[in-house]
């Protein structure tokens, strides 16, 4: 092999190695967020655990890497944009905890913390601006062995804890998050 061909081969290897490093870096998360890595880039369609007769409800959410792997962004919408929201989950270095902010199309927002216990994610959030009297939410999400995600919550509403929603989600690459 002459020098010219050897240089082309070496250049190709270096370029491909560099591209591999860039692609690998783009797919990584900081260590505290890595347990959520398998769910990124996926879209999930949820239906209520106990649907109300005659009322159809679907929640679509999409999880993605954000801020160079220092955060996770979750977009979701209910019933093709009737309601929706966006969350940013990140690691708070000072408090050494996972925190998130959630902003909604209904005009309220939340700030909460999350702990990860195996395949279970437990959250507690404080609500600002909810016109229904909800001031706190506790929720649990669990990835089940069959690949589904189960989510349930309860709300502190007008000073009393009440049952919230419960959904089962399945991965659905054709589903779309819709904002109106």
Provide an overview of this structure.
By secondary structure, the protein is mostly beta strands. It has a single domain (29-171), classed as Beta Barrel (Lipocalin). Helix content is 13%, strand content 50%. The chain is built from one helix and ten strands; from the N terminus they run αββββββββββ. It has one helix at 3-26; strands spanning 42-48, 59-66, 71-78, 83-92, 97-104, 109-117, 120-128, 134-143, 149-157, 160-171. Strands 1-2-3-4-5-6-7-8-9-10 form a ten-stranded antiparallel barrel. The longest helix has 24 residues, at 3-26. It is globular.
Q: Output the strand order for the largest sheet.
A: 1-2-3-4-5-6-7-8-9-10
* Helix fraction bin: 10-25%
Please describe the biggest sheet, giving its number of strands, its sense, and whether it closes into a barrel. Answer: 10 strands, antiparallel, barrel
Bin the strand percentage.
over 45%
Q: In CATH, what is the homologous superfamily?
A: Calycin beta-barrel core domain
What is the C-alpha radius of gyration, as a whole number of Å? 21 Å
| Order of secondary-structure elements | HEEEEEEEEEE
CATH architecture: Beta Barrel
Structurally, how many domains make up the residues? 1
The number of helices is 1
* CATH fold node name: Lipocalin
Report the top-level CATH class.
Mainly Beta
What is the arithmetic mean of pLDDT?
A: 87
Which stretches of 5+ consecutive residues score pLDDT under 50? Answer: 1-25
Could you tell me the number of beta strands? 10
- Structural class of the secondary elements? mainly beta
List the quaternary state of the chains.
single chain
Euclidean distance between termini CA atoms: 61 Å
